[in-house]
Amino acid sequence: MRAAASPALSVPQLRTLLFVKRNPDVNLSALAEHLGIGLTGASGLVDRLVRNELLSRETDPHERRRIQLTLTPHGRARLDAASNSTRAMIEQRLTNLDADDAATVEQAMTILRDAFGGSK
Question: How many other CB atoms sit within 10 Å of the CB of residue 70?
């Protein structure tokens, strides 16, 4: 997925964009915790993504000392394109499986979905 998003994006940058997409208006502390890095590292990472117009950093209107992070339209488009490309690649590879292997994959996915509490 990272290659489809852009070879120039690092894994931490891609993880940052995905986390912000799932958690709009998240703050820097939550991002740092999610990534397992310090605030200084998270801030530098965000700075690069803001410079590349993939993230927006705004002051929280309710708490001036808090910064909110959101995807820019360009960041969202980059993630959507990467996700679509990855999904198409996986689908293409899965359609090439024989019936027995496809059944095994389906069974494994059901087990994983149940184990992680997801739904169909």
Answer: 16
